[in-house]
Amino acid sequence: MFENFVIKIVLLFDIVAVIFFIGLNGTYIFMNILAFFNIKNYVSELKAVDLNRIFRSSFYLPVTVISPAHNEEATVVSSAKSLLQLKYPEFEVIVVNDGSTDNTLAELIKAFNLKETPRTYAKKINCQEIKRIYTSPDYAELVVIDKENGGKADSLNAAINVSKYPLFCTLDADSILERDSLLYITRPFTEDPRVVAVGGIVRIGNSCDIREGEVYEVSVPPSNLARFQIIEYLRAFLFGRVGWSILNSLLVISGAFGSYKKSVVIAAGGYRTDTIGEDMELVVRLHQFMREQKQPYRINFIPDPVCWTEVPEDFATLGKQRSRWQQGLKESIFFHIKMLANPFFGVVGTFAMPFFFVFELFGPFVEFFGYFTFAFSLYFGIVDYLFAFYFFLASLVLGVVLSVGSLVLEELSFRRYPHLRDLIVLFFYAFLENFGYRQLHAWWRLKGLKNSFFGGGGWGDMKRKGL
Amino acid sequence: MSRIVVAEDDRAIARLIKFKLERGGYQVDVAEDGAKAVEEINKARPDLVLLDVMMPVLNGYQVLKKIKEDQGLKDIPVIMLTARGQEKDIVKGIEMGSLDYIVKPFRPAELLARVNRVIKR
Amino acid sequence: MIIYLRLSFIRRSTRQKKLRDIWEPIILDYLSTEINLDKTIKRLNVSHHDLYFFTDFTSEYLGSLAGSEYEQLIKLLKKLNLADFEVKKLRRRNVWIRVFALNHLGLIKEKRTIPEIKKSLKDSNPLIFYAAAEALSSMQDADSFDEVAATLLVRPYWNKIRTAEIFLKYGRAAAARLVKFLDDENITSDRKALVIDILGEFKATEMAEELLRLGPRTDDVNIKVSIIKYLGKITYLNAKQFLIASLDDEDWVVRGQAAKSLGFIGVPEAVNKLAFLLKDKVWWVRYLSAQSLANIGREGWARLEQAKHSPDKFARDVSAQIISEMRLNV
What we know:
CATH architecture of the domain at 204-330 in chain C: Alpha Horseshoe
Mean pLDDT of chain C: 85
Number of helices of chain C: 20
Oligomer: heterotrimer
Low-confidence stretches of chain C: none
Number of helices of chain B: 5
Largest sheet of chain B: 5 strands, parallel
Largest interface: A-C, 33 and 35 residues
CATH class of the domain at 204-330 in chain C: Mainly Alpha
CATH class of chain B: Alpha Beta
Structural class of chain C: mainly alpha
Structural class of chain B: alpha/beta
Shape of chain B: globular
Strand content of chain C: under 5%
C-alpha cells in the first residue's frame, strides 16, 4: 500500500521532469529558430548600413560611457585610455571611483593630469555623496567622479546624475570594448525612437590578444572551464537574448555592456542598490514601468561581438559567480512578482516571466531532483531502462544540437574564431559539456537558489561581474 | 628625396595615397595605426606626415599631440585627413597645430598639390 | 556542416584576396591615366561571376575619392555595364540583394537608372525605399526630390537620422522645396521639426520671417524648439525679442534652446534674463544659460563672474563650472 503510494509519487516526479524537459527544450528550439532568421537578417543589414554615416552625421545621439571602478589600481588607467579611443562623434567617459581603498584615484590623477572641477549636476536619483569631480586638460572627454563607497548600482546612479548626454552605456571594470562598439549599440536608438534600452553581446577574451582596447587575435583559451563558458556564452547570447528581444521581452541586459535612454531610466528610478542583480532588475523594471505608463517601447539586443571580458578559470570563483547570478535572478523576479502570469504585461508577463520563473530560477532544482528520482525509479524498476536510456539520449542530443546550433550561427554571421582548429575544439566541448559541467553548473545555481531563500552564502569580497 | 609618413588604417586608401605620392616623387611609408605611426615618424624623421583622424590604438589627434610635444619632431608639418568634415573637428585639428585639413572623399590630385606646397615651402 | 561553411568561407575569401591583389595595381595605374580604358578592362578581365565582388571592391574607392580620379572610375564602371547588372538585381526577390544593388547604383550614378530606382521608392519595405531614397540623393537628382521627401515624411515608418542625411545630401537647393511640406497636414510635428532643423543646417534664411511668425503661435514644443534652433543657426537678429520671450517658456527644453540660440547670435540685451536663469530649477537650462553668457562677450562674462558670488547656490555652482570649462578650452 505505502509502497504503491511512493511509486506513484516517484512516477509523478518523473512525469514532471519529462514535461519540464520538453517545455525547456521546446522553448529553446523556438528561440533558436527565431534567432536564426533574425541574425541572418541582421548581418545583411550591417553590410548594407554604413556605420560611418552615423559617424559623419550631425544628427547622432551623444553618449555617456560609465565605467565604475572599485579598487582597480592595476587596470583603471589602461581601461580608461582604451575607452577614450572609442570611435564616436560625441561622447564622454565617466570613471567612477567608488570609495576605493587603494590607489585607484591617485593613478587616475597621475595618468591624466586630473584637475578638480566645479562641475554641477542635478541629483535626480539617490546616490552616495559625490566628493569631487575631476576633468583632464589633456582628454576633454574624460570625467572622473570620486564618491563614497556604495556598490556598483550606486556608482552607476551617481554617474547618471553627473552625465550630460541623453544615452548612457554601462560597463564592468574589466569589459573591453571594440572601437566601433558605440556606433553599433546606439544605432537602434536612432533607428527607432521607441527603443529605451539595448543590450550587447559579451564575448570571452581569455587568451585573446587584446591590447589597448583593440582585439588583435581571437583564439580558444587552453582552460577547460573557459572553453565551456565560450559555448555557454554563445548559446546564451546568440540564441537566448536574440530570441527574447524579438519577442520584445528581453529580461536581462548584461552589466558588462548595455546602453539606455537616460530620461527613461531616471523616470523609472535608476538602479536599485539593494540587489546583487541590479542589471537584470533594471531591465525588468523598465518593462513594468513602460507597460504601466502605457507607452510603446522596445528593448533591443544587438548580436555584434563588440565587448570582451575575462571569465574566471577556476572552480571557486566561477561557482561563486554563478550562485550570485542565480540570486540576482531570484531577486529580480520576486521584486516584480506581480508581473508573473499577468496578461497586462503582455508577452513579458505571460511568457518571459513564467519561463524565467519556472525554468531558469527553479530549473536547477528540478534538474537535480530529476537525477535523483530517475536513479531511484530505475533502481526500483518504476521506469524501464530502455525509456531511461532514450530519455538520456534525447537530452544529450538536444543539448549538443543547441550548442552546436549556436556555433553554426556564429559561423554564418560573425566568424570570430579564425582557425578551423578552434572550431573543432569548441565543437568537441559542446559535446563534453553535458557530462559534468552541466551538472556542476546546476549545482552552483542550486546553491545560489538556496542562499537567496535561506540566506547565507558568505560572498566575501564580491567580484563584480555579470552576464 | 623627401619622405612622407602616411598614417591611414583603410588599406585600399593607404595604397592609393602611397601610389599617388610616389608618382609625385616622394618616398612613402605607411603606418596602419596611431602607435605604429609614432614609431615610424620617430624612425624615419619624415618631411611631412599625413594623418588620418580615426585610427586604432592612438587616434590622429593624439598622434598630432605627441608630435607637437616632442622637441625633435614638432617642426614636422602635419596634414590631417578625415571622414568627419564638421567645423569643430577641423578647428580642433588646426588649433592643435596641423597645417591643413583634407576631408574624405578627397581628390588625390589636390592632395598631391597640397603636399607639394607644404614641402616646397 | 560547420566545417563546410568554414571551408567555403575560406575559399571565397582567398579568391577575393587574390582578385584584389590583381585588380589593385591595374586600377591604380588606370586612375593615374597610365593605361587607357580598353586596356584596363582587358587586363582586369572581370568575369561575370566576379562582378559581385568587383562592385564591392570599387565601392571602397568610390566612397573616398572625388575629382578626376572619381570620374575615371565611373567611366570604367560604365564601360563594364555595371549599372545594368545592378538594375537586374532590383527585380530579385531577396530584399538584401535589392538593397545592395540600390547602394551600388547610388555610387555608380547613371542617370538612365533613375526610373528603375524610383520604382523601388514605392516599395512598402522601409529597407528598400530608404535605400532607393539614398541612391537618388547621392545622384543629386533634383527632379526626384519631391517624391523622395514625400515618401520619407509621410510613410508611417521613419528614421530620423537617415532622413536628415538624405535631405542634406541634396544640398542647399533642396531647402526651398522642403518648405512646402511644412504646410502639409499629413505630416506629423516631429517630422516638421526635422524639416526646420534641416533648413537651419542649410542656413536657409529665406524662411526666417515666416518661421519667426509661426514661432510664438505654435503650441507644439517640437516645432517651437526647432524654430528657436533655426533662428540661432542663421543668426537672425530680428528674432531677438521672440528668443528673449522664450526664456520664460514653461517648457524647459524651449528655455534651454532659447538660451543657446541667444548665445549663438550674441545678444547683449538678453544678459539680465540669462543671469536670472542661472537659478532655474532644471540643470540643463542653468548650464546652457551660463554657456550662453560666456558666448555673448564682455557683458555676459561679467554677469558670469558676478554670479560666482550670488547667494543662490545653483547660480554660484554653474557659473564656476562654466568659467573653469572655458579656461580649460582656451
